[in-house]
Amino acid sequence: MSVVNGLMKLPEEFRQRIEDLQAGRTQPPPVRHAATVVVLRDHPEQGLQAFMLRRVASMAFAPGAYVFPGGSVDPRDGEASIGWVGPSPRQWGEAFGADETVARELVCAAVRETFEETQVLLAGPTAETVVDDTRGDDWEADRKALVDRSQSLAEFLNRRGLLLRADLLRPWGHWITPVVETRRYDTRFFVAAIPAGQRARDVSTEADKVAWVRPAEAVQRALRGEWALLPPTLATLSELAEYDTVADVLAAERTISVREPRAEIIDGEPYLVLPEDAAKYYPKG
């Protein structure tokens, strides 16, 4: 769906839902906390690249869209027994406007979901080291056990003698799904460099294609109608396109503010109205 002047035309079936919400005849669905991680690398010829997955057409949420790895918080993501390196949950909470418990869950979800969907693991045996290779049947068995929730992230890391490397992540953004959607997420966006020796792989059953792409190229593909990108994804890529290297991204000073598009009936048609600081990345007029 195209966006012009910060307005995204919604399918006709959204009209009644918008009217019902505005009249108080229905209530928005509950919001689930979620984490998304933009995994980055420096390509020797193309420069800064981000790893993206295309969601399979059968997915209930954002089918066919290119997204970053991520997903909802699992109830066990906040287990305190996990070994932790880097900024404390309290510090993450200050960055994201969350309490300490939610912040711990978000960071753990970020690490877990990234491993589940790409086999990139932001963890290591010491505070100064990172796992350098996660290929092999034993790693795949652990990944699947996380996916089916037969083991928690803490159980996985503790059994392998690994520490969660929260210091490898940086806070980047915060988006909340508009109330008109039937599935809603309160999502914090992180950025991280892929650890040396590791490879991002196509392992997620939720994706049918993966790609390393320059942020500016992904934005242009979306604006030409070649790729489907949700507004939070396009805005994040547009922001990252302003940087030349992974080091530049990780060193960026970020003040995180909440962005939540709103749905309105304009001239009798249903529209999604994007926040001004995200709408600027789309065509005008």
From TrEMBL:
CDD domains documented for this protein: NUDIX_AcylCoAdiphos_Nudt19
Cofactor: Mg(2+); Mn(2+)
GO molecular function terms attached to this record: hydrolase activity, acting on acid anhydrides, in phosphorus-containing anhydrides; metal ion binding
Domain (Nudix hydrolase): residue spans on this chain: 30-235
Residues in coiled coil: none
InterPro entries (UniProt xref): NUDIX_hydrolase-like_dom_sf, NUDIX_hydrolase_dom, NUDT19
Keyword Ligase: no
Keywords, in A-Z order: Hydrolase, Magnesium, Manganese, Metal-binding
PROSITE patterns, alphabetized: NUDIX (PS51462)
Name used for this protein in its record: NUDIX hydrolase
